[in-house]
């Protein structure tokens, strides 16, 4: 069975050495008590929960899967108990508003906890994870009555939430959603339609589930502007107007999706057969309300990506140190001599190191990237409405598609290398490596496919506030490179980063020039542009980590091994991973002509 | 359920337009009757078998999997009947020697049939596929008696074969294999040890299984030079000396491997508990005999890679033409107008086309690559012992690690894109796309991991005959580019190819310069070098295909759509895929320093 040691040390390094956390979040109104010491204590508790409770049920839960029998959805053995312990630990309430029973801790802390949970069991993390979206949507757009009924239950975890968007004919394109909502006399609505791929759509962890459902009112205009958002509980709360006590709503589980991975996650087809619902926000204002859920979910996907990549890396590293095969060429940096049987641990083989360093450079870069964004979430939460809060909001809006897509693609790369590094042992269930890949395979697909994210980036996000949001972010990236260039041992890394960020600047200018009249070129460039953006973003964070490690090593020579690891991974990133930015630049700039010449029947 | 239409038209194009098949194989002694017409007729038969018999059992067989119960290994429903039909059709005997009951058709034809079979069910294809290795090993190294007993049964498919190499502690590194073979008075041996990951290791398709087992004689020297090869039947044939009639041998199935994919393939742990075996070849000559099996298996892996990638591509393409989402920018090459509901089929979206063209350019390039090698197999078979045969043998030896690794990596890319293109529908079992990926995930792992192949390429293969084998291959690659450069519309493709092949030439020179004293740099460059090699190899074949399509279109204007497809894919390959060769070149040439600085505990 795979092992897991929560990356507490990594997070301390990022918070303390790289991001200067104590000068940041505890300086924000409302988060004064969330000092680094408090954060580390909470993370210690989360680590214990994940290691003791989640890790043991992850591999067996994958084998067992969820099961729909006699109309009841059964989660695998141990998931019910784990969820009860999760609630007992107060984990669902961590970053929620004290007004509704929450602990009011910073969003960044909640995301770090989510990373650990995703390492322990991605499937498990999605049960409370989806509740976050429902909580936010009702908090932001719900009536006082809806808040009073639902928020305390979502915050203490006694109910979980879902997002019911996708229908068989409408996935990436929500304009054709067909689910209908008919008004009742008492102010409620009757919803009719079928929703597919509903994560946590039905399960036995809680006695109620709060579905947030996109549907059309009778007078709705066509397209996405005609969507409204409704809260549709699995069981109708007894004190809702006009409903009998806690009765079963007409939400029926049509089937369970048979998925490649996250098999302990009950993903369902839900049939709304005149189910009772209540409007959240304004009529036809569903899309805006939905994006309140969606954007938080997309950052959540980035965090999941890190969690699943981390556990894959940890187990690949442990295996590479332990497994002995072949005799390695004499390596200056190799820690180990051939053992008594004359063979080296495979970590001594250069090609194995190439894989391990790729994993390390990606996982640690990914974590820095989401944490950087998480600190913006703290600002947004604490400074809502102020210019500072709006700046944080805009930068988050810009980075969200990159966080979602680039990190989810990285998660596939890392977990794929984790399989490959284990040889045939990576292909069998018992070692867990193939499960990590299968679980990770969902992240580039859900909450908007990565292709859709790339279009969001090139069509909307880089043009936010007439390009000023992008410009301000890129200026900070260039500034980091400028500062790193002053440290002699980091100069070549900084030079590589400068070349890549200049490419990103040029590509962005070209995309903006193409916007009127060359829409095909813009769309054809989207994915390569996003990858270029992601590499530059990771480069910026690796430069900051390298600078911090360089300073840290001078200050704490006894911690040299840790800091050396950071510097070695940084060097590898700039020498071996960042250069792909050049290929992505060329591809993005080559235009759509080679994509569009063939007619469909010529394929 | 996924569809499949065997790529008969593709093969005809390659054989007729690109490789001039009729001037090649039927001109070889022994293959005079294997004309293009005969080949196409056989392929038609194979297509029918695969479409009618294999395709329907592939998806259900994955869901059901193999099952070990009461000591018997059960294959999924329909596999027994399919195997019986496969035998009835005479498919196992296609390319085997008439002397042993075979049809004596060219190896190239058998490989094309294997491609179709791998599309229909990769799991199924491995049952007869492994028999090929056993057949070759006994044919090349077995005594007359062993040949007489085993070859007819392997050729008519009444028995299947296995390769028993891997042990729990020895995978990539066979030097520490522990299975022992003790001589008996009657000339047979008693084998004791455990073998893992044995494909087709136990099953209910035939009443006997012929295990080819690597083991050590009592006086064996240490390391791989102390390995001998034995044939160890599941049931001892009645006419073997000193054995009672058809008795069960002491080969016991310890367990079934729970694999990520190829779940209808019975992969077993086998315990040899004093099992009776007979020596194949010379004592301590096992490694050489094993490579007779292994090399043919590695080309087989390349062919499997194409098969699984092809069916993924076909289904992605069909989905892209049918699924309507969103409104595409107005595209000159788009075949379709938005439908009645105002949405375009997703094939009209540039980013979807980028994925489809990647799949098309890879799959069709992969097929050309294996077929090019397959025609060398024809020469080797027909001209064994002659200089021409030896040239073919050497070139095959050079290309084998590239075929195995590069094509298996391509299979992962293609099947991964097949999932992504389907959005969430790609993640559920019913659509088959995720099965293709899971099945494909084995190909970079088995028959020597891709990392091991890369080392074989840089440490041995490029140095074959003091580099002359490589030089002769590269000269033919350069020659192709020279000829293509003369066709105006192909000139820019040829120029791109020349740049890439010049990089390969430079990289090869550097690796040879590093060979003495810079072994770490050589090993650290291996995988990137192999990828560079693979891209150049595919580029050569795409240039040949583009030339043939260019000529074909002029000659047969009514077939323009087909030839346009080839030219469009070629253009895409040179513009969007080949440029990665630059990144691989830089990485390979950057040396191992960045890989080796960290000590193991600094990771």
TrEMBL record, chains A, B:
Residues 84-157 form the Acyl-CoA dehydrogenase/oxidase N-terminal domain. Residues 328-347 are annotated as: Disordered. Keywords: FAD, Flavoprotein, Oxidoreductase. GO terms for molecular function: flavin adenine dinucleotide binding; oxidoreductase activity, acting on the CH-CH group of donors. Its EC number is 1.3.99.41. Belongs to the acyl-CoA dehydrogenase family. This is 3-methylmercaptopropionyl-CoA dehydrogenase. It comes from Caballeronia choica.
């Amino acid at each position: 069975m795979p092992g897991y040691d929560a990356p507490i040390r990594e997070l301390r390094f990022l918070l303390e050495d790289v991001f200067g956390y104590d000068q940041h979040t505890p300086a924000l109104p409302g988060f004064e008590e969330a000092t680094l010491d408090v954060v580390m204590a909470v993370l210690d508790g989360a680590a214990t929960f994940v290691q003791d409770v989640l890790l043991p049920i992850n591999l067996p839960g994958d084998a067992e899967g969820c099961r729909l029998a006699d109309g009841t959805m059964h989660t695998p053995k141990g998931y019910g108990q784990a969820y009860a312990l999760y609630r007992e630990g107060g984990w669902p309430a961590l970053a929620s508003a004290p007004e509704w029973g929450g602990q009011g801790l910073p969003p960044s802390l909640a995301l770090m906890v989510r990373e650990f949970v995703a390492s322990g069991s991605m499937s498990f993390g999605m049960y409370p994870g989806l509740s976050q979206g429902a909580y936010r949507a009702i908090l932001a757009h719900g009536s006082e009555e809806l808040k009073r009924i639902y928020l305390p239950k979502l915050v203490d975890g006694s109910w979980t939430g879902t997002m019911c968007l996708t229908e068989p004919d409408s996935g990436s394109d929500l304009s054709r959603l067909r689910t209908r909502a008919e008004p009742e006399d008492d102010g409620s609505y009757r919803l009719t339609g079928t929703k597919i791929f509903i994560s946590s759509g039905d399960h036995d962890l809680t006695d109620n589930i709060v579905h947030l459902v996109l549907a059309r009112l009778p007078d709705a205009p066509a397209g996405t502007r005609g969507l409204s958002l409704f809260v549709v509980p699995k069981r109708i709360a007894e004190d809702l107007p006009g409903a009998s006590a806690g009765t079963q709503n007409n939400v029926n589980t049509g089937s369970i999706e048979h998925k490649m991975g996250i098999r302990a996650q009950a993903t369902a087809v839900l049939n709304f057969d005149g189910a009772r619902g209540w409007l959240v926000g304004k009529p036809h204002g569903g899309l805006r309300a939905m994006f309140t859920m969606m954007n938080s979910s997309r950052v959540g996907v980035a965090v999941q990506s890190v969690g699943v990549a981390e556990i894959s890396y940890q187990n690949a590293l442990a295996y590479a140190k332990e497994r002995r095969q072949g005799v390695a060429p004499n390596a200056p940096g190799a820690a180990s001599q051939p053992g008594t049987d004359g063979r080296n641990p495979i970590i001594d083989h250069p090609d194995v190191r190439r894989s391990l360093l790729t994993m390390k450079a990606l996982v640690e870069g990914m974590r820095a990237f989401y944490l950087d964004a998480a600190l913006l979430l703290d600002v947004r939460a604490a400074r809502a409405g102020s210019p500072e809060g709006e700046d944080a909001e805009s930068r988050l809006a810009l980075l969200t598609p990159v966080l979602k897509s680039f990190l989810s693609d990285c998660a596939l790369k890392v977990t794929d290398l984790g399989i490959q590094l284990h040889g045939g042992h990576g292909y069998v269930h018992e070692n867990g490596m193939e499960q990590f890949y299968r679980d990770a395979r969902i992240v580039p697909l859900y909450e908007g496919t990565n292709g859709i994210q790339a279009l969001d980036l090139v069509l909307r996000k880089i043009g936010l506030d007439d390009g000023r949001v992008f410009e301000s972010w890129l200026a900070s990236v260039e500034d980091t490179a400028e500062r790193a260039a002053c440290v002699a041992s980091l100069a070549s890394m900084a030079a590589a980063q400068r070349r890549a960020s200049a490419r990103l600047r040029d590509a962005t200018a070209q995309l903006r020039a193409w916007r009127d009249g060359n829409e095909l070129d813009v769309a054809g460039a989207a994915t390569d542009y996003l990858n270029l953006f992601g590499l530059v973003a990771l480069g910026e964070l690796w430069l900051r980590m390298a600078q911090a490690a360089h300073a840290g090593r001078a200050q704490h020579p006894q911690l040299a091994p840790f800091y050396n690891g950071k510097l070695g991974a940084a060097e590898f990133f700039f020498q071996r991973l960042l250069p792909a930015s050049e290929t992505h630049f060329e591809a993005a700039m080559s235009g759509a002509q080679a994509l569009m010449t063939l007619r469909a029947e010529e394929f």
